Amino acid sequence: MKTTITYLLLTFAFLANAQDGILDTSFGTNGKIDYSFFSTFVDMKVDNGKMIALGKHTDGNPILVRFNLDGTLDTTFDNDGIKIVDFGNDSETPASFAIMNHSSGYAYLVASSISGEIAKIMEDGSFSSSFGTNGILEYEATGSYRHASVNYNPSTEKITLVRADGSWNSSDGGKILRLNANGTIDPTFNNGNMKRFYFYSGGQIINLNSAHTDTASNIYIHGLYTQGGVQDSYTVKFSNVGVQDYSYSLNVNGSRSYDPSPRYLLNGLNSTSYIFGMSTTYKMMVVKKAANGSLDPTFGTNGVVSLDLPNKYYDNVTSIAPYSHGIDDFKIILAGRTRQQTGNSDVFLSRINSNGTLDSTFGTSGFTSVPTTIANHTSPIFLGVDYSNGKIYTMGYTATGIVSMFRYGVNLILQNEETSNYVLKIHPNPTKSNLNFSQEISEIKITDLSGRQVFFNKEKTKNISVENLPKGIYFINGKNNKGEIISEKIIKQ
């Protein structure tokens, strides 16, 4: 097998197509598909060549929906692409979901917003027969569950549940519970008990937003403190055994937002993170935090990026997606809503470089937007990047009762003319366990089709084990002894 060597991660024939950030008019009608079966729309993710959306059906049932890359419902998922997740609560709107990329295969975890329950749904849309009772696990029988965040860590194969007590703007704090992949209690976290936490001491009102984990299984919980109509972002960190890290910066300058729900994204590989929303000057806001929770001075202006879409008043970032752009670099796509001081909002996309500067090669001078008939500039737009076809997908409300999906082109990795005739042999490929290389390579990164890094090895080696990776297609990247970068596709059986 001949391996192309280049200064970039991947090379695909389709990457020379249309300019980044332009609507793909071959998708739906002029780049958009409308769906009218959502009464509430909660979230959307792109993974393993599918789009997965969480919400509530117009018939009142909580639903998990899976789409093909062309926007059609995936009928291999529960026969019609729509899975009803019935927790037994008439007023249930599901709180959150996580993709479970487990060594035994794919599954989805859905957390209830009312009861202390999570559901595990298999890749074919059936409930897991080995998780809880008929696929629904009750982890706590009493209490109020105004927010629950579920997280799955593929590095440790652990499920983390974080939920808030009390009502909105309550001072009751929250709890953390960690489970094994089969739903049993993990005794290594807080001796198998729920961990009570506050962002400050008891009595401080912080509204829970989301929970995340890094590869070492540290837990990061993001919350919001409302004062004077402005949201302050706070983040607490706990170790993999449940001990709070008080050295981690709780709050940073520049993260105040007028968006009712500024959001948070953790890079689990290096523990850096981003807070994003709309700044107090109504501009796009992206804040980068270093691994210790402090502002990252290499990003934007002292860790803060503020962007203003021309001729608009409100610019609100509701979703971001960092993705690899070369072996040692990345870019960040921003999605959200923008509008004049009055009138209807537009769905926008933008892209920034890894240092926070605007990438003017994206869209038109760094931006692209599509009009809607929704006035609300805080209604979230969710974003995902699919590496298998080089596309960006966004999803959110565009009209009353209508959730729309948009597809845009993106050159994930631009080709470089600098290549070599060096041949690296990888065997066996496909493999069930080990990969052997004909020469030593270092800085080995393996990413799945969604661009998520699932393996890293810095040291030189001629073989690695991929036994714990789920079955699927991956891309392996590394450096040879000459410092040249190698990229190849591998198949895990």
Automatic annotation (TrEMBL):
A Pfam family that this protein carries is Por_Secre_tail
Instruction: Give yes or no: UniProt keyword Disulfide bond.
Output: no
Q: Which UniProt keywords apply?
A: Signal
Task: Give the residue range of the signal peptide.
Answer: 1-18
Q: Which domain of life is it from?
A: Bacteria
Secretion system C-terminal sorting domain residues are 426-491
What's the name of the protein?
A: Delta-60 repeat domain-containing protein/Por secretion system C-terminal sorting domain-containing protein
Q: Which organism is it from?
A: Kaistella chaponensis
